[in-house]
Amino acid sequence: MNNDPKHLHKCRNICFATMGGLIFIIILIVILAFTVFKPKNPVITVDSVTLADLKFYLDTTKFQVLFNVSLDVDLSIKNFNKVGFKYADSAAELNYRGLKVGEVPIPAGKISADKTAPMNLTVTVMADRFISDSNFFADVSGGELPLETFCEISGKVNILNLFKFHVVSTTSCDIIVFLSNSSVGDQNCNYNYKV
Asked: Per the database record, which ranges form the Late embryogenesis abundant protein LEA-2 subgroup domain (predicted)?
């Protein structure tokens, strides 16, 4: 064992330099985690809603409606984070005047950093639920069907396996389906995010 003062001074300096370097690296990681790698909200955008199939027949003598509709909903999820976003199983809903009339599952997945994941969903409507609403016949007579699409994606952003953040993104779009020519008219979308 060497008790030389120069050797002890050199060992102490190496120890201080190592401690200083570790403290600097820890501070740098924390600063990066809350600035550059700060979790950002994924954005769900409804790119288009098209009428895939519409079969409609109104039998006034029997007071019966035969109605079947399928909508193709193209949406995309944009991940603005500098790390991947992993989301859980979810679903997109189709509502008529607050009543759920259709649902399609969205399987779990992962979106890489700064990437956009496109999705094409086909929603088949549960026609029997329309008829239970008293406004349905008035809407059909008017030739316009007001619908709402709702989608919520929740998942996690994992930064350097040290910091995990839960992120939820929701999109709600009001649309009008014109029954006369089987087309989709006005769309008004609202987006909400929660970290």
From this structure: 75-168
